[in-house]
Amino acid sequence: MGTIVCQTCEATIAYFEDEKVTTLYGKCDCCEHDSEGGEKE
């Protein structure tokens, strides 16, 4: 089982089927609206 986690606030966004335990990072809806100003990483 895999998990998608927000890289900004660490909230769990979704789960997906995978052969091994995997964690992917993305952005949740809350953080996408906050970063519209063009934050740099």
Describe this structure in words.
This is GapA-binding peptide SR1P. InterPro entries: SR1P. It comes from Geobacillus proteiniphilus. With about 40 residues, this protein is an alpha+beta fold. The protein has one helix and three strands.
- As a percent range, the share of helical residues equals 10-25%
Shape: elongated
Q: Taking strands numbered 1, 2, ... along the chain, how are they ordered across the largest sheet?
A: 2-1-3
Measured by DSSP, the beta-strand proportion falls in: 35-45%
Specify the biggest β-sheet.
Answer: 3 strands, mixed
User: Which class of secondary structure composition applies to the elements?
Assistant: alpha+beta
Distance separating the two termini: 28 Å
Number of strands: 3
Question: What is the number of helical segments per DSSP (H or I, 4+ residues)?
Answer: 1
Q: Residue ranges: pLDDT <50 for 5 or more in a row?
A: 37-41
User: Secondary-structure element sequence?
Assistant: EEEH
Number of domains: 1
Radius of gyration: 12 Å
What's the overall average pLDDT, rounded? 81
Protein name: GapA-binding peptide SR1P
InterPro entries: SR1P
Organism: Geobacillus proteiniphilus
Name a few traits of the molecule.
41 residues; alpha+beta; 3-stranded mixed sheet; 1 helix; 37% strand; elongated
Short note summarizing the structure:
By secondary structure, this protein is α+β, with helices and mostly antiparallel strands. The protein has one helix at 29-34, and strands at residues 2-6, 12-16, 22-26.
Describe the SSE topology.
Blueprint: E1 2-6, E2 12-16, E3 22-26, H1 29-34
Parallel strand pairs: 1-3
Antiparallel strand pairs: 1-2
